[in-house]
Specification:
The chain is an alpha/beta fold. The protein has 8 helices and 9 strands.
């Protein structure tokens, strides 16, 4: 099945494909919106999603220079106030001083474009670059799970490949890059993941292979996942005859990313890119 020429791959779309090829097909190729809940109870799940969005907005405004006192007045919600307080008291330390909040990078890969929107990139030009991602997970994921996620692999890879524009035009070395996950519910236990040239090469082979694999599939080549645990938190489960009711969000472990990257549209003229 030929993908649209302007199709853009992101960590969300590629993670969907790895988790369940059928979900990738339904969501990105069919563009099918299926009116099913991702988790129960619905109102609590939706509230947690919105709190995550609001927290990201608060941190973004703070990085841009809005005084914390002014922002604190907008945190009436108890959960949001706690996360915000954790950020102010136990936020990431020892960061490079040049900050790029909500930066977007893109590069051609496998005949398409690979694109990512970062929460924050902190740069010490020519020496060190740190990717910061804010997470509002109810449960803290393990290091191995985080290291294997497409977000980790794509964000570090793409920064090395297309991040010279943030480094005064100097190409970045893999060893200069680190990705840090900071957890609003676990502020004293961030997770830092370093990078190196061997992992960069492995990521390039892996990502290029994934895109080629997707490009070469016909409709019947997008099978359902064999891991039915994933189906409990998938909106398409009833369409795929994998259950009707959503699972309880309190029982979710790493299967449910409550603050997963939102879909976003990009004006390609606004995307920082290196051409190859």
């Amino acid at each position: 099945m030929a993908l649209p020429a302007d199709f853009q791959f992101s960590q969300s779309s590629l993670q969907d494909y790895v988790d369940c090829p059928r979900r990738f097909y339904l969501r990105y190729l069919r563009g099918l919106a299926w009116p099913a809940l991702q988790a129960e109870p619905a109102l609590e799940h939706e509230r947690h999603l919105q709190q995550g969005v609001q927290f990201h907005r608060l941190v973004h405004q703070h990085v841009l220079g809005v005084p914390s006192e002014e922002l604190s007045r907008a945190t009436a919600d108890a959960n949001l106030s706690r996360w915000w307080g954790n950020y102010l008291e136990h936020g990431p330390a020892d960061l490079p001083e040049v900050l790029y909040p909500e930066a977007v990078l893109s590069t051609p890969l496998g005949g398409h474009r690979l694109v990512a929107k970062y929460d924050l990139i902190a740069v010490d030009v020519g020496r060190r670059v740190v990717i910061l991602e804010w997470k509002t997970y109810r449960k803290r994921p393990g290091r191995r799970w985080l290291a294997e996620r497409l977000q980790t692999r794509i964000y570090r890879y793409l920064l090395v490949r297309a991040g010279a524009c943030l480094n005064e035009g100097q190409p970045l070395e893999s060893e200069q890059v680190e990705m840090v996950y900071w957890f609003a519910n676990f502020p004293d236990h961030p997770e830092g993941l370093a990078y190196d040239a061997a992992q960069y090469q492995a990521d390039e082979v892996y990502l290029t292979g994934l895109i080629a694999e997707i490009e070469g599939l016909e409709e019947e080549g997008f099978p359902l996942t064999g891991d039915t645990e994933r189906c409990q938190y998938c909106r398409y489960r009833s369409l795929c005859r994998r259950g009707i009711r959503a699972a309880n969000m309190e029982d979710a472990g790493e299967e449910l990313e409550l603050d997963d990257e939102l879909d976003f549209s990009l004006d390609l003229e606004q995307v920082a890119e290196i051409e190859f």
